[in-house]
Write a structure and sequence with these properties.
The chain is of the alpha+beta class. The protein contains seven helices and four strands, in the order ααααβααβββα. The termini are far apart. The longest helix has 20 residues. Helix 1 runs antiparallel to helix 2. A hairpin with a 2-residue loop joins strand 3 and strand 4.
Length: 176
């Protein structure tokens, strides 16, 4: 884990109490670290470094080891999720039909730096996933619950614009 200034106040104390109870119910918390991290992510929706450090102290495990686990498994996230989660299928059928180019097009359109998963405006999170069982539509992208089939690189800009517009409309409706 890099040297970082931690602000433990970002952690909600009610959620921490729930997490404490979950950890205390475990006989061997170090051996059940994956479960504990799942529970922590369920409660906080992501695993900021402050939360990893909190867990490390709580179960007496090196913070670097916990960060290694969080970084290794793609189902753990160290960034808050965007309003829209874009999942690009990288299963075989999608990959051979150009899913990687589609994924890179989303990265470019959202101006994501290497390792960055959520756009700076907080609207979009991008991830790659394994086969979602819709291979006939390859390459497949999902945004939250909606499925897009036969997606081409050239479609990416329009898809993002549609969702930016949707987000704007929602903000306008709430403001009315
Ligand atoms: S490989 Fe993409 S849906 Fe199956």
């Amino acid at each position: 884990m890099q040297k970082t200034k931690f602000n433990m106040e970002i952690l909600d104390s009610c959620k921490l109490r729930e997490l404490d109870a979950f950890i205390e119910a475990e006989d061997n918390p170090q051996g059940r670290i994956i479960n504990i991290l799942h529970e922590a992510q369920k409660l906080f929706s992501y695993l900021p470094q402050e939360l990893q450090l909190y867990i490390a102290r709580k179960i007496n495990m090196p913070a670097a080891k916990i960060n290694g686990i969080v970084s290794f498994y793609s189902f753990f996230s160290q960034e808050p999720s965007g309003k829209y989660t874009i999942s690009v299928c990288m299963g075989t059928a999608c990959f051979v039909k150009g899913a990687d180019a589609v994924l890179q097009a989303f990265r470019r359109e959202l101006q994501l730096e290497e390792d960055q998963k959520t756009s700076a405006d907080g609207l979009f999170s991008l991830r790659d996933v394994r086969c979602i069982g819709a291979c006939g539509l390859a390459p497949v992208v999902t945004i939250n619950d909606r499925i897009f089939g036969h997606v081409k690189e050239a479609d990416v800009k329009g898809i993002i614009e549609e969702y930016r517009e949707l987000a704007k409309q929602e903000v306008a409706e709430v403001a009315q």
